[in-house]
Batch of 4 targets.
Target 1
Amino acid sequence: MDRVPGSVVIDRMREADVHAVVSIDASSLGSSAWDEAQLRGELDRSWAHLWVVREADAPIAFIATWHVADELHVLNIATTESHRRRGHARGLLRHALGFAVERKVRLVLLEVRRSNRAAIGLYRSFGFVAMGLRERYYSDDEDAVEMLLRLDDEGRPVPGADEVTLDEPIS
């Protein structure tokens, strides 16, 4: 377990966390990316790695990733509304990147809503760059920015530049 700001810890997601995580996901997106059965399926996949931030043993944030070969795909990261802007997402991302370094991951990939400036800023602070744009990616037709973090042989971020030019800047 890792500590994040305050009296909270990062721990592996458990079966008992599924209902709370689906609720966190739904409050973040307006509707959940997963239903409970799908999330339980993720817990059973050997390549899926999911962690939660716990406060008083209750999940208040989560990250879901897939580790495939030398890549880590960040599927989702979300925090309950009442606990946002406290460093929980940053702590989860730092934890997932530590996991990636331990497993000699070379590429960390994710998609983020083009309008989610806070998340884009968070990812950029870790060294992610914009590598593509998926038009109308989300169910509400919003575009997704594809972001990439390259890691060197020692697990350090490799500096890079955006590979796409967008109509509006994504800083």
Target 2
Amino acid sequence: MSHQGDYEQRKFNGRRNDYNTYIDWIENKDIRKKEILEHFPAYVGHMTLSRSITFYELYKKTKGIAGHIADVGIYKGFSSFLMAKLIKLNESESLTQVHGFEWFKGMGIDSIDSKVLSGSYLSSKEELIEMIKSQGLEDILLIHDLDLETELDEFFNTLKHMMFKLVILDVGFYKVLKECIPHFWSRLTPGGIMIFDQYNHELAPGESMAVRENLPNIKIETIHNSWTPTAFAVKPYV
């Protein structure tokens, strides 16, 4: 009998030994950090590279649409920093910002969600802020430390003007997403995109449930070449 999460484990299991061997090789090589930063395609794995390209392709679809970018569940800042730098490259004269939402306490679970994720994704707010400042992104990338289950009403009541053209949902848990999706969907400009990191994913069943309940009549599109994110939706024009 298979268990929740088994398919993902089986599908990618053949790659793990080679990947771990490669990581050990990297860690034992005398490679300067500057070399890795300047020649990152030579070092990064193809699945991580695919994730970056996927975000870039979806960002490009929002060209000409008004609004900021929301990154909900930022962890170490992969997508937040990527989007901030895409704005810097592509929207140098705009006021577009990335708003990252995180509570910096890791992931809890309830009975709906996979036990595999419990306690994971704990990150440091101070480290993120330091990285933002060191790269001169203070005006573009803003971090909001709040509980997404209970504090979104107050947040948006304070910022009544705020609209988004792109929303990245990388939370994975039912209770949080049940609150997040209505708030961010209502603030998504028509034609804008909402990205689901683990839609139809056995390790995050609560994500699919929250999407079905909140967006029952919205077309959910798959992403064929991406491990995660797995899907997105374009907000229709009424």
Target 3
Amino acid sequence: MTQKGYTFIELIVVTTILMILASAVMPLAQVVSQRQREAELRRALRDMRTAIDQFKNAVDQGRIPTTELEPENEGYPPELDTLVQGISAANDASGRKLKFLRRLPIDPMTNSTDWALRSYQDSPTSTTWGRQNVFDVYTKYGGTALDGTKYSDW
């Protein structure tokens, strides 16, 4: 009588082949995950920068009174939370606030809403925020992207 089933050698060969295939797939999965986080970072930065630009346009058009802003502010939001909490609209007796973001996006690289900021008066290469206003936003994560650029330069 012959017994049916796999031999021990056949099981070792199949297990080895599966391990080789799995080791080839793991780096690819890591690259796909990193690429997805990079896309989320670009989207979050674009959303916040668009909101900052909309705030500036509202100030320039007179929809936001400059009396609520600091004199050296240049028409930019005083902090990121202002984009979410809103600011009183000019010539609006109803007390309605202009809001530019529903919530602060989460930085996919640091998993927090703690973003690095730059004010209009700061140097373009500054790594500290001068606290006059929010002119630009970038990630605090110091890593390098798949294309070789630093995330903080995006």
Target 4
Amino acid sequence: MDKTLYTLIVHSENIAGLLNQVAAVFTRRQLNIESLNVSASSIKGVHKYTITTWAGKDIIEKVVRQIEKKIDVIQAHYFTDDEIYFHEIALYKLSTSEFQNDPLASKIIRRYNARVVEVNPVFCIVEKNGMSEEITSMYDELCALKCVLQFVRSGRVAITTSCFERVNEYLTLREEKYLQNRKEQES
């Protein structure tokens, strides 16, 4: 079966325990979560989960339907890479002495448009944001120079390439229906 890397964007109320419920949907389907990022969204009181996983289209559709059934989930959608704009961030902790002794390390950092954010006598920290492949390539090149002390990367952050966020449209329609029902009840 062909698998595609899908990015799920889930909007929910900020309720404790929801992450466990969402993760359980993946576990039941034996899907591995490749990356996970949870943060407040642009809508007050609404959180945004950005989850990546490899799956077939039929499975991802079922996963999204199951997630949307969770009581605190407002809306869930899945996207392929061409339907979203996404980035990751990575931090590389490098040995200052190795970094300063090898001019190639500095060239690598410039070539990948990364930036040095901290330097002290023991280590320096380099920050890179961009596509997953660039972050991995830069890591591999720095590792070859034997100057990497630590490495960490974030999960994917993503926004849709459409003009409107679907959850905004949904919440607007929900509010309009609520107000309409209220007017009808008062009449």
